């Protein structure tokens, strides 16, 4: 819905909702699945065309390591960087019983995944995979994951937008909001909108505000006319980050890997490019609730500084290494790798 030139966010986070309690298939979950499938197909292609030292028969194993690394690293990273109480505070399960802190840590269905933590987790998993299978250079698997990560990052940010989370900052001109700005029905829960004239339209004080939100989502013209002009127009920061983490980052990596490179070059490039893009796009995104700024930077920007430094060090190490050059997207394929040392 477009009104006053802003998009009214009415997207449903569920593909299929099976119960009123919130159980169902979410777009966010499908984004993870699709991202892993795209990554698997790209790595399989690289292996089949001889652009990777990972044999085609080992690609499925590599992806299992990658999936575990992303999920474990992403969740632990979220707890470490954004919500340390998950390590220490007791929680309650679905039956209301008090359970140890690790129960809440395992509850990934309730949200809370950190992209920086996922990257650390998958890098560690890739090194373990390469060392276990005696493939050299070990950093090559990290190069592979760095190359195939942008499609998954893009889908993840799009899922953030569908979920209506990670809001951007309010735009400057609220009187004439741009067509690409976004308004969220959930803003009425902040208590800053005047909804008194809707009391007769949506009866029942206990369900009044949720009723207003549902009416907005359903496109009720009376509710829309009263509420939408009062809502704040925000930057669609999720879409900005989807564009940066997906197509832009992917094009940078393709350009770098168009010719064969030493192990670590692609990973270093990924860390630098992602870090710079994250710092820029975070300028349009509100800081995470309850997470304080560090040296004037959001938590995402602060962590990205370390990524850039790590990427520079990795490029320096790679430039001095004597490892073979691999990849070369613009080079003729040389046939699949078929052996494991």
Kindly list the characteristics that best describe this protein.
two-stranded antiparallel ribbon, elongated, 11 helices, three-stranded mixed sheet, 341 residues
Any overview of this molecule?
This protein has two domains: 2-169 and 235-327, no CATH class; 185-230, no CATH class. Helices cover 51% and strands 7% of the residues. The chain is built from eleven helices and nine strands. The protein has helices at 27-48, 59-81, 85-88, 101-106, 115-132, 140-163, 208-218, 221-227, 237-256, 265-281, 299-320, and strands at 2-3, 6-8, 14-17, 24-26, 91-92, 98-99, 182-183, 260-262, 325-327. A hairpin with a 6-residue loop joins strand 3 and strand 4. Helix 2 runs antiparallel to helix 5. The longest helix has 24 residues, at 140-163. The protein is elongated and about 75 Å long. The mean pLDDT is 88.
Layout of helices and strands, plus pairs?
Layout: E1 2-3, E2 6-8, E3 14-17, E4 24-26, H1 27-48, H2 59-81, H3 85-88, E5 91-92, E6 98-99, H4 101-106, H5 115-132, H6 140-163, E7 182-183, H7 208-218, H8 221-227, H9 237-256, E8 260-262, H10 265-281, H11 299-320, E9 325-327
Parallel strand pairs: 2-7
Antiparallel strand pairs: 1-2, 3-4, 5-6, 8-9
Helix pairs in contact: 1-2, 1-6, 2-5, 5-6, 6-9, 6-10, 9-10, 10-11
């Amino acid at each position: 819905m477009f009104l006053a030139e802003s998009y009214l966010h009415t997207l449903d986070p569920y593909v299929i909702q099976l119960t009123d309690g919130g159980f169902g298939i979410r777009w966010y979950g499908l984004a993870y699945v699709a991202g892993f499938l795209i990554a698997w197909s790209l790595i399989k292609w690289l292996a089949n065309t001889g652009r990777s030292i990972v044999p085609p028969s080992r690609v499925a194993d590599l992806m299992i390591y990658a999936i575990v690394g992303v999920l474990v690293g992403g969740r632990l990273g979220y707890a470490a960087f954004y919500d340390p109480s998950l390590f220490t505070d007791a929680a309650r399960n679905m039956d209301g019983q008090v359970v140890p802190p690790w129960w809440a840590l395992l509850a990934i269905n309730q949200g809370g995944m950190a992209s920086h933590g996922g990257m650390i987790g998958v890098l560690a998993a890739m090194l373990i995979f390469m060392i276990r299978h005696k493939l050299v250079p070990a950093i090559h698997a990290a190069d592979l994951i760095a190359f195939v990560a942008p499609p998954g990052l893009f889908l993840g940010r799009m899922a953030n937008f569908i979920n209506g989370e990670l809001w951007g900052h309010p735009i400057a001109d609220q009187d004439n909001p741009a067509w690409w700005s976004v308004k969220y029905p959930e803003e009425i829960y902040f208590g800053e909108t005047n909804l008194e004239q809707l009391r007769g339209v949506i009866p029942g004080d206990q369900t009044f505000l949720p009723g207003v939100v549902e009416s907005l989502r359903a496109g009720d013209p009376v509710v829309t006319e009263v509420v939408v002009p009062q809502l704040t127009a925000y930057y669609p920061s999720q879409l900005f980050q989807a564009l940066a983490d997906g197509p832009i980052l992917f094009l940078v990596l393709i350009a770098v890997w168009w010719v064969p490179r030493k192990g670590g070059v692609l990973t270093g490039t990924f860390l630098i490019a992602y870090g710079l893009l994250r710092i820029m796009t975070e300028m349009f995104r509100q800081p995470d609730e309850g997470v304080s700024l560090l040296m004037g930077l959001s938590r995402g920007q602060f962590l990205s500084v370390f990524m850039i430094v790590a990427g520079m060090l990795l490029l320096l190490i790679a430039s001095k290494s004597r490892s073979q050059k691999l990849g070369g997207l613009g080079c003729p394929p040389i046939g699949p790798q078929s052996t494991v040392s």
